Input
Amino acid sequence: MARCEVCGNEYGMSFEVHAQGAVHVFDCFSCAIHRMAPVCEHCRVQIIGQGVEVEGQWFCGAHCARAEGKVGIVDRV
Output
């Protein structure tokens, strides 16, 4: 069993996420999202969908990017 790096729970069905050269261990998707999801620069929500990256900043969508003064950003439909 492995220990979740967020909540400390030891769980037989824990899983690893390999990202940017690091290995993270979680017991559930909620803990993985809590640790791994970027946060919108405008509304501060954790981005669990596609999001929008503009000039190295993350936004949950084009609306929030435009609210922060970014131009020419559109959501993909």
Notes: The longest strand covers residues 15-19. The chain has a mean pLDDT of 94. The beta strands are 2-3, 10-11, 15-19, 22-26, 52-54, 57-59. The chain is about 20% helix and 25% strand.
